[in-house]
Amino acid sequence: MAIYNSFKAKIMDGSIDLDTDNINVCLLDSGHTPNIDTHTMYSDITANEIASATGYTTKGQSLASKSVAVDTTDDEGVFDAADVTWSTSTITARYAVLFKNSGTNTTSPLIAYVDFAADKTSDNGDFVITWSSEGILNLN
Question: What's the pTM?
């Protein structure tokens, strides 16, 4: 998981609230080149969002069952949510990007991304993102 630098400021100034804001995860293809410094808004990544995939719609899915907690064992704050499934889908994606869905492409700030390290696919089956048992984001 890589965290966009702009998110670090937005979490500190309160403009992103992970457990109450609408947080989405979208999927990007292998043509995307992530940049944690210059990519700040959803509009910066739309060129490589997967399109016309069976079972996938633009802007991906909203995260469900979001929570923010303190982990005193590891001395960190933890953001977590339910795993994400695109059922009966035909998808090929290399990246998953978390963002605050503020309604428009230019006002939806990026949070973090996952590089699957290779194309991840589903062929008329489930495309699943299983978050770490330690949470999606851990801040220490």
Answer: 0.95
